[in-house]
Every structure is written in C-alpha cells, then in structure tokens.
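Revision sheet: structure tokens.
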Amino acid sequence: MLATRALRAAHGPKPNITGFNMRALKEATGQPRYDPWERAEAWRYKGTFSRWNRFRSGFPGLGIASVAFAGYCAYEYLFLNDAHHGEGHGEGHH
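Predicted:
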C-alpha cells in the first residue's frame, strides 16, 4: 500500500463539502411501484423492434448474398472445369 493511501485510510473518507449524499439519492430513487411511462416504452422491445428483429435488420441482404454465393460456387464446380484440372504442374504444363 502506498503511503498516501495509508494516510487516507487512517483519516477516513474525505468529507463532502456540498452535503450531497449520492447513496441516499440512489436508495430514494429506486424502482417505482408504478411506472406511468411503462406502457409508452413497451413498443421499443416488442414486435418489429424486438431484439431478434433488430439483429436481423443489422445485416440486410446477408441471406440472399449467402445463397447466391453458394449457387455460384456450385455452378463453377460443376460447369466451369478446365481441361487440365486434374493435372499437376508437371512437364507438360508451361
């Protein structure tokens, strides 16, 4: 422990010159028994704005692009074969 920390610990916490007690404020402003804005805020987390729908709309076109890329890879594999596809880099290839 540093010497300054030891001195602070010996004297206790610093006095608050404003008299404002943050702990008392947090305890007093806890969760209200009835929230009048609860119904007005509920639309943000349901239906179109649910967590899943917000995640899905974060990547527009990803599904279509994935299917198109897989289709192109299949087309290339099946129909665009070179004549010397199976050969290695041997004597006949220059």
